[in-house]
Amino acid sequence: MARRKKFDDVNGWIVLDKPREVTSTQAVARLKRLFHANKCGHAGTLDPLASGMLPIAFGEATKTVSFVMDGTKVYRFTVRWGAQTSTDDTEGEVVARSDVRPTRAAVEAILPEFIGEIMQVPPKFSAIKIDGERAYDLARDGEDVVLEARPIEILDLVLVETPDADTAVFECECGKGTYVRALARDMGLRLGTRGHVIALRRIHVGPFQEEDLVPLADLEAAAEGGLDAVRKFLAPVEAGLAEVTEIPVSRDAAARLRRGQSVILRGRDAPADEDAVYATCGGDLVAIGEVARGELMPRRVFMLDGE
């Protein structure tokens, strides 16, 4: 009798609603066990103290991770005024205090300064590498971590509410590489006080919306009914490509693309040049590639069940 494999080739996406106190790596490991999946990874780290959207790709969906990570993100976060911490959130020690508490009008007045392309110094406790070492590892070892300011893009920043004089709730839409903790720190300094994040939730990543979120508890409950029950939560591989142009191709063209060969696109609506597209044949995902001078060149090909 053939021995059953411990793990299977599972393909698709889970838009996990990550709970607080769970690291992104731990979340991936738990889902890998729940789905008995050979391969999976996440599209963008979420801090352990943060909750919300952690898109997790399985199998062939891992080839689409970069498209999700490059998309915009939306965070809802709460800032406490009057204290700055070493980590810019509640995990660190208080390093500076202020008695100043900004009014709602004062906060709203400075928000336009933080919208658009701005320069931001990442938190010392971050995953950025310095000479091959993670900044947070160096900071925890007591080293004086100095990070350079780098450009980021804030598409929108809104003050949602001010529950009391000490706290303010914001919603931020931003591009890749933005640290909300650093944004809270910098807003505090600009307002003549100090600030750090006490609650953070990610509600949008690339093509995925808040309504796509699947709580970890729901997946664990479904797993008690077996693999088929939990795998019903999977979104298709192409869900990660919802913001990329789709190009339907013929069977012959699909066969060429899967062999790594380029194909000439014909038809009045065929794009002449495009940096990123994905090809489908009869609704099945074939390849990701780029179009130059009317020729589709595959960069990654897909081998899904039944193909």
Verbal overview:
With 307 residues, this protein is α+β, with helices and mostly antiparallel strands. Helix content is 20%, strand content 36%. The chain has eight helices and 18 strands. The protein has helices at 24-35, 65-69, 104-110, 135-140, 180-190, 216-223, 227-231, 251-258; strands at 12-18, 40-42, 51-58, 73-81, 83-85, 94-97, 116-120, 129-130, 133-134, 150-164, 167-174, 195-205, 214-215, 245-248, 263-264, 274-281, 284-292, 295-301. It starts with 11 loop residues before the first strand and ends in a 6-residue tail after the last strand. The mean pLDDT is 91.
Give short descriptive properties of this protein.
globular, 18 strands, alpha+beta, 20% helix, 8 helices, 36% strand, 307 residues
Set out the fold topology:
Layout: E1 12-18, H1 24-35, E2 40-42, E3 51-58, H2 65-69, E4 73-81, E5 83-85, E6 94-97, H3 104-110, E7 116-120, E8 129-130, E9 133-134, H4 135-140, E10 150-164, E11 167-174, H5 180-190, E12 195-205, E13 214-215, H6 216-223, H7 227-231, E14 245-248, H8 251-258, E15 263-264, E16 274-281, E17 284-292, E18 295-301
Parallel strand pairs: 1-13, 3-12, 14-16
Antiparallel strand pairs: 1-3, 2-3, 4-11, 4-12, 5-6, 7-10, 8-9, 10-11, 15-18, 16-17, 17-18
